[in-house]
Design brief:
With about 850 residues, the chain is an alpha+beta fold. The protein is about 45% helix and about 25% strand. The chain has 5 domains: about 260 residues, Beta-Lactamase (2-Layer Sandwich), CATH 3.30.450.20; about 120 residues, PAS domain (Beta-Lactamase, 2-Layer Sandwich), CATH 3.30.450; about 100 residues, 2-Layer Sandwich (Beta-Lactamase); about 70 residues; about 160 residues, Heat Shock Protein 90 (2-Layer Sandwich). It is elongated. InterPro entries: BphY/WalK/GraS-like, HATPase_C_sf, HATPase_dom, His_kinase_dom, HisK_dim/P_dom, HisK_dim/P_sf, PAS, PAS-assoc_C.
């Protein structure tokens, strides 16, 4: 009978334990399978997005290298030299440089230079890895080809990228099809005149192999199509690149996967992903016109768009889930067996526990040892409120010996103000069952033997013993906790103060349809023109959007990536005022609230207004730039007219006058010969004026070429040349060493030549002529000077010194055009500097000039 009762209890305990465990196991396994299914799908999606982005980066990197090569060849020094000189030696160096380039860069099938009439000047073909120069008789005129005309229309430092085309080897389309992309760049000579174009034929198969390598390491299949859906790279290349032939290439992405998939990929979004019944499709659009160099402002002009498409079939997705399901079922079976065994073991020990309860009474010694090792102070108090038992931690905390407390009232351990409500009085809690944290919710302190107090918390529990009901009191010293609470409260107060004083709106809201507010700071109240925090909390965030579509898009973005940063949206206040706002939000999750958004709102209306103003200013600047370009074109035309049309009659006057003097001088009297000489001198004077005006015009239009210029060397060279022209003159000159600047060497040479020529000319009457060139530092500025001891000039007329045709001396005494100093002033101003002069009549002149050293060195 006793055996049957034990067996019945064992079965009862076993079922009570086993059934909940098995149900919990089934629920956990089901949740794990669902979680893995979601995680597996998310991993596949992330992997395919990564594959598409890797393909995009591979194309951008490859085309960045190719673009650099095309621009490098367009600015090749040997090409520039040949364009400037046109001699055969320069042409030979050009072909050698191209052969060396093609031999070292096996990326290209051929390289060509075509002049601006479309005629091939040189063509080097890379046949089977060996560069070969094409004979001149085989060169063709390709002006009618599309890539030639589009490239010639480009500006400097721009390139044109052609669509994929088949490779032509020895006049025949190579088989199998080898895709080729032309990279062509316009070529300008040293005078910035268009002279032709450089063309590189890139072997597109190299890019295809790189994309196939990316496809091999991903779950899905990676393909590349153009904007008509034709395959440039197909996982199974049945129709790959066939669109380049009318008789081939009927296969495309739309025919393979259907119109619905192609419509999804063809939409305006640059990147997308869609799980369709036919599989997972991920795409990234690559607009070749937007591929930019990160370190320059070069443009690539082409309208073609490529689309990288990654495809994962439903079979692959299902296979990965099925394998995990089989593994999970095996684990579930093993765990079921273990849980059944565990339930039997626990049921067995439950029965053993009942038999062991009788032995608990004999463990009093063990209980005392446990009592002494406890980290809290523990008291056993009888019904009279006297201490029956205590541990050593009580002695340590309160400063009493055990003999001083046992048998004494427990009330001496607390201040008198807590005696009436203290838990040591049994009648206050003995009717309640279970442990009570009596000090919870109230301030409670203990009193030491020396009278000092410290915060405590007491948990009490009635204990039935042979001596009657005792109270077990566990006392905890909560001094550290109280200090932590005070510190936390201070931190919270500082945080709240910081939050309330922030100049931006801070909010917490729910991701429901309305966007209900949970918390806001005072700036939000001011920002939305509410009368109080309560009034604003009564509204939802969704009410403040001017366009609900903006909120839907923003919510979708936050839910997709977990955050948004600095999103610009149009909001309105409670009074209806609209403004632009910068919105930053982060998605978070709480066990109580669930999913919620924390974010900040900043009024950026002023910034947007500034952006609009800047855009307007840029438009005005662009308009003014166009006007300036038109004026420059007119100046070019005027310079051409002056240079060619006005020179012809002057040459005729001079030539016919010289002929009359040479051939008919004996038939003219002295007065007639004098008149002809005057005509010749006037014509020559007019030619000099035209040359000076053209030089002044070129200085104005010339674009600065910044480089390191040695003014000391230039000055010595010019003065040596002046001395050679007049070897009989004795002029002493000194040039300070180390005058190094940055600027345009040609323009600075013109400037020094004019100033030094003037110093040489106006010191001609001084038998001890002296010319000095040097530099002083004044208030941190470099001030350069050119000083002479010539005739000088009256400072009253100094304001006319740098004007065109302004002269302060008799032209018969000191000849000149009156344009030299105007040219000098324009050169100095073009370098961001200033020029002025100081002079005394018959004591010489000093010309000072500066260059904007800070601005120059920033270049």
């Amino acid at each position: 009978m006793k055996s049957d009762r034990s067996r019945y209890r064992f079965i009862k305990y076993f079922l009570i334990i086993c059934i909940p465990l098995l149900l919990s196991l089934a629920i956990v396994l089901s949740l794990l399978f669902d979680a893995h299914d979601d995680a597996n799908y998310a991993i596949i999606e992330a992997n395919e997005r990564l594959s598409a982005q890797l393909g995009e980066k591979a194309i951008e990197y490859t085309f960045g290298v190719l673009r650099g090569d095309a621009l490098y060849l367009a600015e090749l020094s040997s090409l520039r030299q040949w364009l400037d000189t046109g001699d055969s030696a320069a042409y030979s160096r050009l072909t050698e440089d191209m052969i060396t380039f093609l031999d070292s860069r096996q990326l290209y099938g051929k390289v060509r230079f075509i002049d601006k009439q479309g005629q091939e000047i040189t063509r080097i073909h890379n046949y089977q890895g060996k560069p070969t120069i094409t004979p001149q008789e085989q060169l063709q005129n390709q002006f009618e080809l599309d890539f030639v005309q589009k490239t010639l229309a480009l500006s400097a430092k721009s390139i044109y990228i052609s669509p994929f085309e088949p490779t032509i080897e020895r006049g025949v389309i190579a088989q199998p099809i080898k895709p080729t992309v032309r990279f062509s760049a316009p070529v300008f000579d040293s005078n910035n005149e268009l002279r032709g174009l450089i063309v590189l034929n890139y072997k597109g198969e190299r890019l295809m192999r790189r994309l196939r390598a990316i496809s091999d390491i991903s779950v899905g299949e990676l393909g590349l199509v153009n904007d008509q859906g034709r395959w440039l790279l197909e996982p199974h290349p049945a129709g790959e690149l066939g669109f380049m032939f009318r008789s081939q290439g009927t296969e495309n992405l739309e025919k393979k996967f259907g119109e619905e998939i192609w419509s999804f990929i063809s939409r305006d979004a640059p990147i997308g992903q869609w799980m369709h019944e036919k599989g997972l499709f991920t795409y990234v659009k690559i607009n070749l016109s937007k591929i930019q160099s990160p370190k320059s402002d070069l443009n690539i002009e082409t309208g073609e768009t490529w689309v990288l498409v990654s495809y994962v079939s439903p079979k692959i997705i299902a296979a990965s889930v099925a394998e995990y399901g089989r593994n999970l079922a095996l684990v579930g079976a093993l765990l079921t067996i273990l849980l059944v065994l565990l339930s039997g073991i626990v049921a067995h020990y439950a029965l053993q526990r009942r038999r062991a309860e009788g032995r608990v009474q004999r463990s009093e010694l063990q209980f005392r040892r446990l009592l002494e090792s406890a980290p809290e102070a523990i008291l056993l108090v009888d019904q009279a409120g006297q201490i029956a038992l205590m541990n050593s931690q009580t002695e340590k905390w309160f400063g009493y010996n055990r003999s001083e407390l046992v048998g004494q009232s427990a009330l001496q351990l607390i201040p008198e103000r807590f005696h009436q409500a203290h838990p040591f009085l049994p009648h206050q809690f003995i009717a309640d069952a279970g442990t009570q944290a009596v000090s919870s919710g109230m301030e409670l302190y203990g009193r030491r033997k020396d009278g000092s107090e410290f915060p405590i918390e007491i948990s009490v529990n009635p204990l039935e013993t042979e001596q009657g009901t005792l109270t077990t009191s566990i006392i905890r010293d909560i001094s550290a906790r109280k200090e932590a609470q005070i510190a936390r409260k201070r931190v919270q107060e500082r945080y709240r103060e910081l939050l309330n004083n922030l100049p931006v709106g801070v909010f917490r809201s729910l991701p429901d349809a309305k966007g209900s507010f949970l918390e806001i700071n005072p700036t939000m109240v001011n920002l939305f023109e509410a009368e109080s925090t309560e009034q604003l909390l009564a509204h939802s965030f969704g009410e403040f959007y001017c366009e609900l579509a903006e909120r839907k898009a923003l919510m979708g973005k936050v839910l997709l990536q977990g955050y948004v940063y600095g999103e610009e949206v149009r909001l309105k206040t409670l009074k209806g005022r609209e403004f632009y706002a910068g919105l930053t939000a982060v998605m978070k999750k709480d066990e109580i609230i669930g999913i919620y958004f924390d974010g900040i709102v900043e009024d950026i209306s002023v910034r947007k207004e500034s952006e609009w103003q800047i855009k307007l200013l840029n438009e005005n600047l662009r308009f003014r730039t166009n006007e300036l370009e038109a004026i420059n074109h007119e100046l070019e035309a005027f310079s051409y007219s002056v240079s060619h049309d006005l020179r012809a009659p002057l040459r005729a006057l001079d030539g016919f006058s010289r002929t009359l003097l040479d051939e008919y001088a004996d038939q003219l009297d002295q007065r007639g010969r004098d008149r002809l000489k005057r005509i010749r001198l006037a014509a020559q004077r007019m030619a000099e004026l035209i040359d000076s005006l053209l030089k002044l015009s070129r200085v104005t239009r010339t674009e600065l070429k910044w480089e390191r210029v040695n003014l000391t060397s230039l000055a010595n060279e010019i003065l040596a040349t002046l001395q050679q022209m007049e070897p009989d003159r004795k002029v002493r000159y000194t040039v300070q060493s180390g005058l190094i600047v940055r600027g345009d060497a040609q323009l600075l040479h013109i400037m020094l030549d004019n100033l030094l020529s003037n110093a040489w000319k106006f010191s001609a009457h001084n038998p001890q002529a002296l010319i000095e060139v040097g530099c002083n530092i004044k208030k941190g500025r470099m001030i350069y000077f050119i000083r002479d001891n010539g005739v000088g000039f009256d400072m009253t007329y100094a304001d006319k010194l740098f004007g065109v045709f302004q002269r302060l001396h008799d032209p018969h005494e000191f000849p000149g055009t009156g344009i030299g100093l105007a040219t000098v002033q324009r050169v100095i101003h073009k370098h961001g500097g200033d020029i002025w002069a100081e002079s005394t009549i018959d004591q010489g002149s000093t010309f000072y000039f500066t260059l904007n050293e800070k601005e120059i060195y920033e270049h």
